[in-house]
């Protein structure tokens, strides 16, 4: 697990990335090292698929369960035959519309893909990231790169280079820091191995966007509770994820009732002298004067909550919060992905108010 050198942290301009640094990062990947790099969703911890030992090290560095598969990143759709045994027409249609972008497709795996990448499954999860640094790095590396989020397993995913350094400094060869990511939550994972496409993890490509391709009702969605009890067939389906250090309670219901419930709990917490924090929307701010308040943005702009979420969870840690209440977003559009991440972070601490 240990990297016996000093992690090289490189600040890089996403508009004009320094080719020399990207060449250096690509060489690290080709020789079996680990490089953390930005994507449009979160930062990834990359290892070349051609180096099974490097893939094993990704699991060790993160503390990631061995049965949790990784996503393979490619620089273009034309590279897909290198890792997928079959490419259905639906994959081509989706790639034309969403690649590069935050959509991961689960397809039958080519036998040349190491077992470590797929956690022993006959499938492989693949995407093409929409980030100039990631795409150029992949082009220069010349090999598929397996890359889960560049954080310690279970922690909030990294949307800043500083988040990566906080978790992995000294454990990997290089971190390419290109500033904040855009989407903020991980890619949508879509299973294309069955007749009807099935969303295994909601993300930056929403169900509504997918139904524009397949028609209304043409996409299924996996039940996250049921999926937690079995073997994960894609990243992010099992185990507690995205969690801050303090217990997080996700409160679900009509906004006014949710805010009243949390305000009542805060009054009780005040008697115990615990230090609570609240993740809520900007229009909820008046409920929480005098409390650690972290804004998810405007309720009608779920992209703001998606972009901010993981940074806010880490900010709760930095502020020393001992208890966190989060207002649940609407489960439509991108709000479905934000809800999913908060639900995972809560680890069963979900309160529904009538």
Q: Quick gist of this model?
A:
This protein has 354 residues and is α/β, with parallel strands linked by helices. 32% of the residues lie in helices and 18% in strands. The protein is globular, with a radius of gyration of 20 Å.
Q: What does this 3D model show about the protein?
A:
The chain has 354 residues and is α/β, with parallel strands linked by helices. It folds into two domains: 8-228, DHBP synthase (Alpha-Beta Complex), CATH 3.90.870; 248-352, Threonylcarbamoyl-AMP synthase, C-terminal domain (Rossmann fold). Helices cover 32% and strands 18% of the residues. It has helices at 19-30, 52-62, 89-98, 115-118, 132-141, 161-168, 207-214, 224-228, 255-272, 302-318, 335-346; strands spanning 8-11, 35-37, 44-48, 71-73, 103-108, 123-127, 145-146, 174-177, 188-191, 198-201, 220-221, 248-252, 276-280, 292-295, 323-327, 350-352. The chain has an eleven-stranded mixed beta sheet, sandwiched between helices. A five-stranded parallel beta sheet has the order 14-13-15-12-16, with helices on both faces. Helix 1 packs across helix 5 (132-141). It is globular and about 60 Å long. The N and C termini lie far apart (48 Å). The mean pLDDT is 93.
Blueprint (SSEs and pairs):
Layout: E1 8-11, H1 19-30, E2 35-37, E3 44-48, H2 52-62, E4 71-73, H3 89-98, E5 103-108, H4 115-118, E6 123-127, H5 132-141, E7 145-146, H6 161-168, E8 174-177, E9 188-191, E10 198-201, H7 207-214, E11 220-221, H8 224-228, E12 248-252, H9 255-272, E13 276-280, E14 292-295, H10 302-318, E15 323-327, H11 335-346, E16 350-352
Parallel strand pairs: 1-8, 2-8, 4-6, 5-9, 10-11, 12-15, 12-16, 13-14, 13-15
Antiparallel strand pairs: 2-3, 3-7, 4-7, 5-6, 9-10
Helix pairs in contact: 1-5
